[in-house]
Write a structure and sequence with these properties.
single chain; alpha/beta; Rossmann fold; 4-stranded parallel beta sheet; 18 strands; binds asparagine; Asparaginase/glutaminase-like; EC 3.5.1.1; Asparaginase/glutaminase_AS2
C-alpha cells in the first residue's frame, strides 16, 4: 500500500467566502475529509504548511515546500501539494529546479472553485492528484482537470474555466479518466540521485517589452537586480532604433547583470538567428531561453543565481535542459 503525504498551502481549493471575498481557511485534514470516499489503496498523512492565496506567495514559500518534501522524502512514496492556481506554474517549476531527479511523484493541484462549494472541481482534482501520486514515476507534475503536465511546462491560461492549465511547448504527460491513467508521454527517468538545492537569489526582474518602453528605465535596474528576463517579441529581438534598448542591455551585461531573452509568444520559443533585431544581440553575452516558458525561466534564474554569481556559469546552467524545461519540438 502506497504511503502519501499531503501538503496544503492555501489557494481557492482551501478558500471560504469571507467578508472580504474568498480567502484560504481550510486546513489539510479538513480538505482531506471532503474526499473521504476514496478507496483506500493508500495511506495518507497531512501537513498544513501555510494558508495563502497564491497571489501572496513568495519564493521563500517555494523553499518551505521544497524543504518539507526533502525532510519527508524517505518516509513516503509520493507527495500531493494543494496550491492556488495563480502562481502554481511558478511553484511547479521552482520545485522542479530545487528538487531534482526525484524517483517519487511530487504532484501539485488546486481548483477554480473552493472545495467547500456544492459544485466544485476541487474533489476531482485532489482525487486525480492522489491517483497520480500513487504511480511509479519520478518528478514534479501539475495535475489539473484530468491532465498531467510536466512541472516546468504548465501555464495558467484561463482565469475561470476548469481547464485553467495547459502544457506549453511540451506534450501532456497523461490524462486521467475516472481512475484510469492514460499515458501520452514517457517520463524521463535517468536514475540519477535525488538532489536538493534550495538556495535562491530573488534579485530577478521580469520585463515585458512594449512599443514605447523608455530605455532609461533600464539604468535603474543595475543596483537592484542581478538578473533580468526580457520578454521580447516574436522570434526574439530588441529594438535598436529610436528608443534604443539594445545599447542599454549591453550596458547591463557589462555591469555583470545576467540578461535572459525570451518571447511573449507562448508557443515555439525564441530563435534570435532569424532577424536583424535578433542577430544584433550578442548571443555570447545574453542567455538564450530556447522554448522555456517564462514561469520556468524566472525561478530557474533565481535558482541559478543562488548557485553562482559568475555570469558564464549562470548562462551555462540556464541553457542546460533541466526537468524537460528545454526541448527540441516535437520531441
Ligand atoms: N483558483 C485559485 O486558486 C486562485 C487563487 N487566487 C489562488 O491562486 O490562490
Amino acid at each position: 500500500m502506497k504511503k502519501l503525504l499531503l501538503l496544503t498551502t492555501g489557494g481557492t481549493i482551501a478558500s471560504v467566502e469571507g467578508e472580504n471575498g474568498l480567502a484560504p481557511a481550510v486546513d489539510a485534514n479538513e480538505l482531506l475529509s471532503y474526499v473521504s470516499d476514496l478507496d483506500n489503496e493508500y495511506t495518507m498523512e497531512t501537513i498544513s504548511l501555510m494558508n495563502l492565496d497564491s497571489t501572496n506567495m513568495q519564493p521563500e514559500d517555494w523553499v518551505t515546500m521544497a524543504e518539507a518534501v526533502r525532510d519527508h522524502y524517505h518516509a513516503y512514496d509520493g507527495f500531493v501539494i494543494t496550491h492556488g492556481t495563480d502562481t502554481m506554474a511558478y511553484t511547479a517549476a521552482a520545485l522542479s529546479y530545487m528538487l531534482q531527479n526525484s524517483s517519487k511523484p511530487i504532484v501539485i493541484t488546486g481548483s477554480q472553485i473552493p472545495i467547500t462549494f456544492q459544485k466544485t472541481d476541487a474533489k476531482k482534482n485532489i482525487k486525480d492528484a492522489i491517483r497520480f501520486a500513487c504511480e511509479e514515476v519520478g518528478g514534479v507534475y501539475v495535475v489539473f482537470d484530468g491532465r498531467v503536465i510536466q512541472g516546468t511546462r504548465a501555464i495558467k491560461l484561463r482565469t475561470k474555466s476548469y481547464d485553467a492549465f495547459e502544457s506549453i511547448n511540451y506534450p501532456y504527460i497523461a490524462f486521467i479518466h475516472d481512475d484510469t491513467i492514460e499515458y501520452n508521454k514517457k517520463t524521463h527517468g535517468e536514475n540519477l540521485p535525488f538532489s536538493v538545492d534550495t538556495s535562491l537569489c530573488t534579485d530577478v526582474l521580469l520585463l515585458r517589452l512594449y512599443p514605447g518602453l523608455k530605455p532609461e528605465m533600464l539604468d535603474a535596474l543595475a543596483s537592484m537586480y542581478k538578473g533580468v528576463v526580457i520578454e521580447s517579441y516574436g522570434s526574439g529581438g530588441i529594438p535598436f532604433e529610436e528608443r534604443d534598448l539594445l545599447q542599454k542591455i549591453n550596458e547591463l551585461v557589462e555591469k555583470g547583470i545576467v540578461v535572459v531573452i525570451t518571447t511573449q509568444c507562448l508557443e515555439e520559443g525564441e530563435d534570435m538567428s532569424i532577424y536583424e533585431v535578433g542577430r544584433r544581440i550578442d548571443q555570447e553575452l545574453v542567455i538564450r531561453s530556447s522554448n522555456m516558458n517564462t514561469e520556468a525561466i524566472v525561478p530557474k534564474l533565481m535558482w541559478a543565481l543562488g548557485r553562482s554569481t559568475d555570469p558564464k556559469e549562470v548562462k551555462g546552467m540556464m541553457e542546460t535542459p533541466i526537468a524537460e524545461d528545454i526541448t527540441i519540438w516535437p520531441s
